[in-house]
Amino acid sequence: APAIGAILPAGVQQLNVTFLPADSVNFNPAVASGLITVTKAAIPAANITIPPLTDLTFNGLAKEHTASTPGGAGFTYSYTGRGGTAYGPSTVAPTYAGSYTVTATINDPNYAGTKSLDFAIGKATPTVTTNPTASAISYGQSLASSSLTGGAASVPGVFAFNIPGTTPSAGTSSYPVTFSPSDTTNYNSVACSVAVTTNTLALNSTGITLNAPASLVYSGSPKTFTASATGVSTGFTFSYRGIGATSYGPVATPPTNAGNYEVTATVTNPNYTGSASQTFIISKATPAITWPAPAAISYGTAISAAQLNASTSVAGAFVYTPGAGANLAAGLRTLQAVFTPSDTGNYNTVTASVPLQVTTTARPIALLAPPDLTYDGNA
Predict the structure, then answer these.
(1) Which residues lie across from 267 on neighbouring strands?
(2) Quick check: 238 and 267 in contact, CB under 8 A?
(3) Which residues in the chain come in under a pLDDT of 50?
(4) In the sheet where 98-107 sits, what is the strand order?
(5) Is the domain defined by 205-282 classed in CATH 2.60.40?
């Protein structure tokens, strides 16, 4: 026993044999026994199936595998971390994200076999349910000066700007923000965005310099101002208006005529606000009078256009003193001209003078002797 053809279980088994002699009259039956070691049958790994799990994303649950063979043997399981994942070996299936190997070993008294399967538990991606709110900053400040408040996600964590060193232009724009979970082992970061308002930076009027043109005397050309701001690259718009008795503007065109004015320069750089004003006066121009000193005349010669010939490039009229036709006494005399411009709003009245030498005229003198030239004691 057992009989021929019997399949023995694995292990050390006893075989028994009984000899029955044909001549049972003269011989007794004989009994003998022996031990035999039956090894477990090896099942190749190809015949062991470990189906991959359909959900290998972290969810807080152990990722248990199940193996099978065509014969329906049972298994024990061992889990070990691989790569950079420290785990096991353990019979407990892992929960955390990482890279692992599961080894299924047949648990059967008559069969032996193992098979391994590598698998990875991926990080879960949190859900950001509410984006945070960013506080306003001023131009020149970086996003690091903006505070992120509020915001909610499906797991604990914090929100932060992707590039906190960015210095935005004035206005409201969207900037990338990252939600970083507290549990970075099992959860991915999530990208979102927030709107940041960057306020314009107000420039102090003392930081704006208004530059007057080279001359503020009436010339028939507009008196255009320029401006600059300390430490700031910006353009300006200009507005001019008359003040006091001067009626003008406000307009962007600089004034030309003499008068009292105010100019206001306003920055155009969209990142700044600010303006500065300055009053100024366009003075009347004084016409240049050309009046060469006339040649000397003789006493008794009436003065005329030959002497009264002052001129200027400005429209207007001359009034001379003395006037044309006057006879001047001999000696060094002065001729005076008062020029009154037609445009008295932009030109001053001018007085000019030149010397005129009036020479004496030589006349014959006749001496008449008295009729009686006899001495009588009288003169």
Answers:
(1) 236
(2) no
(3) none
(4) 74-81, 98-107, 114-121
(5) yes
